[in-house]
Design a protein that fits this description.
11% helix, 10 strands, 10-stranded antiparallel sheet, mainly beta, Lipocalin, globular, single chain
Length: 138
């Protein structure tokens, strides 16, 4: 009887731990919720083969990243164009499946999460964009 009780307890334990794949329908992983919200382009970095530096974008466009991974911009923004979607691959990389540019994008937050720097992996000499947070999602 003790053995049967132990076996039933183990079966119930493992059944309760079953993973539900339908719990995460969005391409934005909750590990990085700070990527969501509205951002403004403030600088870009492009090296055409010579020395490069960050260039200010005084009237940069805004990017709104939604929980489903889709984004829209107020005007063209470096890497983002005018709209599309992103899919997180890790807590520091994403891809843009609808983009003509093939590759991954690496991002890092600074300024307490209020600035994100994004680098495109396919640029040999380096290309990036800095976005400042305008608003959190909600």
């Amino acid at each position: 009887m003790k053995r049967l009780s132990l076996v039933l307890l183990v079966v119930v334990f493992f059944a309760a731990c079953k993973k539900n794949e339908s719990e995460r329908p969005n391409p934005i992983d909750p590990v990085v919720p700070t990527l969501l919200g509205q951002w403004k382009e403030v600088q870009y970095y492009v090296s055409p083969g010579s020395l490069a530096s960050w260039t200010d974008v005084p009237d940069g466009g805004k990017v709104m990243i939604n929980p489903n991974g889709e984004y829209k911009t107020s005007k063209p923004v470096t890497f983002f164009g005018t709209g599309g979607s992103i899919v997180l691959k890790s807590d520091s990389t994403f891809t843009m499946p609808n983009s003509s540019a093939m590759g991954s994008y690496f991002f890092k937050f600074t300024d307490n999460g209020n600035t994100v720097t994004i680098w495109f992996s396919a640029c040999i000499e380096g290309c990036g964009v800095k976005l400042k947070r305008v608003a959190f999602p909600g």
